[in-house]
Model the fold of this input.
Amino acid sequence: MRTTRSTTLLLVAATAATLALASAPASGHDDDRADYRTRLDPLNKPGSEGRVRLRVEDATLHVRLRVKGLDDGPHIAHIHGIRQAENECPGFDADADGNGFVDLVEGLPSYGPVQRTLSVGLDDVGRRLRYRRDFTALDDGSAIAALGDLSQYAIVVHGVDLDDDGVVSNADVNGDGDQAADNEISMPALCGEIEHHH
Ligand SMILES: [Ca+2]
Ligand SMILES: [Ca+2]
Ligand SMILES: [Ca+2]
Ligand SMILES: [Cu+2]
Done:
């Protein structure tokens, strides 16, 4: 189990532009406050729903996330995207292998790589999520300000029970060694495009 989880975390993390641990000190003087919100819509988990509110204040990102209708098990959440790129939630035309699920990799052209992980490892577990968290850096160590306008990004909540055992845990449901198409932990459950909230 430990090995499986570690492998999965690496897979998810590998979608980030960089894993650099060295962090540049926050350099901005961004004293503006900007509010955003997202409605999360089901991608591979029908019946799920969620809302995220985000506020960028000075150099801090405040996040309030609520999701319900999930399968039991761990749910990783990310801000995905690239500045000035296509930062959208995929439709089912993104299901390139036709297996009925838009997996993490198939969705990347739409929502882009991971910029900020909102979850705490695999500790956000259960059928519903509810948390408030503050962040002062992106996953690559850059200041939050490097994201720019958050309406260029999307939020993805991962974790779908694919083998119907009632829990998100299997990183390779078909047992073929490929941990993308049928990975319960990285499988996107919901996605929402971030919008300004005035
Ligand atoms: Ca697929
Ligand atoms: Ca399962
Ligand atoms: Ca597989
Ligand atoms: Cu993600």
Remarks:
- The radius of gyration is 16 Å.
